[in-house]
Amino acid sequence: MLSLYQSVLAFTIFVLVLTAIYVGRHYPKPGTLPMMLALIAVVFWDLGYLLSLGAEGLSTKIFWTKFQYLGYEFVPPLWFLVIWRYTQHRIRNHRSLLLIFALPLLTIAFAWTNQFHGLLWQEAAVHGHLGISVLETGRGPWWLVDTLYSYSLISGGVYLLLRDTIGLPSIYKKQALVLLAGVLVPMAGNLSYLMGLTHHLDLAPLTFSITGLVFAWGVSRYRLFGVVPVARSKLLDEMNLGTLVMDKEGLLLSVNPAACSVLGCGQADIGEPIDELLVDHPKLLDYLRRREKTQEEVAISTGGETSYFDFKLTPLESERGYTSGWLAQFYEITSRVQAEQRLRKVTIETMEALAKTVEAKDAYTREHLDRVEKHALAVAERLDISEKRREQLRFAAVLHDIGKVRVPDGILNKQDGLTDEEYDQIKDHAEAGESIVGQVSYLQQAATIIGQHHEKFDGSGYPKGLKGDEITLEARILSVVDAYDAMRSDRPYRDALPREVAIKELKENKGTQFDPEVVDILLEMIEAREAELE
Question: In CATH, what is the architecture of 4-221?
Fold first, then answer.
């Protein structure tokens, strides 16, 4: 029957196994692999010690003591690697890592051959303590070398951890305390054993149960291994690029000063839900909630002023394809956007002035452009077209007849029927308009709409004979609205058609000349008096 100490030791093994599985499965991030291996090493140590305590004969106890070295020797170097990876120090050559395992491997070899040289222990004997038979050994010369090496690795890890967390936010200091507690508590138990305070009963295996609980608590409470490692956070703090990191559950893991100055959240908010921290920035919050890789221009209002940012959201993926979180970065582009807006305004004013030139050539065009712009946008809104696309449609509506600057006045205002040659010149205005407007980089979509606004749904239009979805939706909208207004307007060669006749023409040409869906929407608007084009 197991003693109380042995029962607690068995429970320790169970706790450590569960903690290793939890860390390995849920946090595949820097530091977690050596942490998981360190916990497994402690399991081997504890298991060997438990079986040694339960063994009857001296030789069997010595066998399980040798077995303990298979775990005990790997704990200090693995813990050092935990800190090394957590603080994100570079490893130039991964093979060099094997060097810190060289002495532990040599010690294991000495342990299993100790009967030939006595370098690790001498004069083994069994003593009873609290109802437990404990193996007592005299310490050999190599034991001191091994002990000094182990404690040097542990001390080196402690130094790195303390050095790299000084001056950092409290979340990192709390994580450092978790890591320190995980190693210092077992060290205290081991030192008490080495100093003979526990009557040959080593408390270190037992105190590692506390290590498992502390690490499990640190992972769940302080996002241990979930928050960006400390060395990387220093780099983020020095960047002008606003950067925040959130985990896959939407909790803030890291935020640098550049992001804090814009969003208002700070280091004290680490570990809190993004949804609660960014309620004043709904558009940005919408992108973060989607959890989709994106790059957009985002406007953020602070103190009544609007600033513009180039926003990018990227998944943080491990080599195994596991998405552990999301990296959001944004760079202020307000000055660039304002310069583009000024340039756009000047360009549009220039284009509109050119359109006025067309109006002077063609009296019909003077009020036609304003009406087509107004009602094309109303149809587009009914079709739930995005704001950016509606803006391009607005430009196209205003400039769709700009190509007529290349058509002679005599043809534009001719009251008699046009010859085939003259009609071909009229038809050229769509391509001419596309060519003129297409010279402005941010009006490329508008130029395409202008070039297609005389295409027909059945493919019988011009200039390219496009049909159906080959014609952009915006061009199909412009085509219907433009045609209806043309029918309802006085032309040099005829008077305006009555409202009923124009509506009849739309219905009769639905599906051939015009997009049926667009026609239906425009007819609804006309019927509801929402689009009076007279």
Answer: Up-down Bundle (1.20)
